[in-house]
Amino acid sequence: MSLNPTGWRPELSPELTGAESGGQPTFTGNRALMLEEPLLFEIGSITTTGVDFPAIDPSAANRLGGLERAGPIGLPGLSEPETVRHYTRLSRQNYGIDLGAFPLGSCTMKHNPRLNEKVARLPGFADLHPLAPVSTVQGALAVIHQLGEWLKTLTGMPGVAMSPKAGAHGELCGLLAIRAALEARGDARAVVLVPTSAHGTNPATAAFCGYAVEEIPATAEGRADLAALQARLESDVAAVMITNPNTCGLFERDLGRIGELAHAAGAFLYCDGANFNAIVGRVRPGDLGVDAMHINLHKTFSTPHGGGGPGSGPVVFSEALAPFAPLPVIERDGQGYHLVEEETAGDHHASSFGRMVAFHGQMGMFTRALTYILSHGADGLAQVSGDAVLNANYILRSLEDVLDAPFAASGPCMHEALFSDKGFGEGLTTLDLAKSLIDEGYHPMTMYFPLVVHGAMLVEPTETESKPALDQLIGALRHLAERARAGDATMKQAPFFAPRRRLDETLAARKPVLVWEG
Ligand SMILES: *Cc1c(COP(=O)(O)O)cnc(C)c1O
Fold first, then answer.
1. Closest protein CA for atom 8 of ligand 1
2. Is residue 201 a part of any domain in this protein?
3. Domain residues for 471?
4. What is the 3-state secondary structure (H, E, C) of 356-386?
């Protein structure tokens, strides 16, 4: 067996192939203690296995009734140490908020206090079975119920559904409630209005629910165009779906007026509150006429997230929509907490549109979110949003002289600062700057989103970053912005120092290698 089974050789940058390394890449492909990692298929083989199974009892095979596999499934076998090393090495190549600033706009990569993890791992919460008798899980039901009460208080909304499992799932929940409410009054409507400054999941959700989506333009300021919205609010409009703070990083100042106009036209106001982080403790969406809003617990109330999970997207409802909220609902009376499900729902829940998930939602996130809320308290939560907005404005004002900030004149931004690629030298793009930021040791900001800005860069600094940490990030971004403006073509080759250089991302996404073909 070759000592370098992958045959992979690092493509070193000009800096690294200089005198210090004698121009030589390493034999193994490793870089000091950063280890090169082959694919599982390259380490193991389909003819080996890391576990011993007893031989199949022929009579048991008969009982499988023809369901047994006809042949190997093409997954490689590895020993336990090989498996452990593979995943541990890969984990060292991962980048997370615990390693450094993670300025991914719209995603709110929060610091996750260790206290939350401790509470979430308490066996009384972590080891619960969703079908355990209600009398044995009163503590867990209390957590879900208390968290729901906090969400209602913080948003000023009377109803809540805890079960949706992500922001987009919460949007679906909100729109299903709106559809049920409209159908209940015999007024099914066909259209959902979505401003161009909304998150992409908003039109996707409305379309998934069968609504025709119509766009409302943004003003030059980066906010929803109130006049255009008003002009389109006719009797076929089921809902206005608006992201606040919007994806231009701005507070939708007209939200209250938009709510009045929507209601006057018989429509509902859906607010995408994924980034409640920026306004928590300062604004109650219920006071602005919002009828339904999801809150991404994983963005506002901590929980490690990214890479597709975990998420949790509870939805709060206005008086008008609360009766249509999904089951199960947790209620409290003199006897304790109980679950209202289909069989036990009385008249009070007769209009519920149904159910979003099989059980109750993401218990591990409920415990983390409630721990986060209780450890901060109401004043601490207001400080979270204050710090988030302060940090983002510090980034915006520190960089607006070297990076084009299209909405810098629209007043303070919220939790994220938006820049464009205007002014970059010939041939240089947002992608080149983002890839260069990897060499500087940062996960790139959100790129090419929102779509309303050319070559958009959406930078969200996270409220827990210290001033020295922000200054270092700003320094790195300034340095790269100046190189981009000067037309430094080497940026097109970045990253130089990452375990992999620039990949064909389209090919990687469209043709992933998932089975052994050797
Ligand atoms: C993250 C986000 C969503 C989607 O949330 P998921 O949990 O990823 O489904 C929707 N809207 C906005 C504004 C977001 O930032």
1. 167
2. yes
3. 384-508
4. CCCCCCCHHHHHHHHHHHHHHHHHHHHHHHH
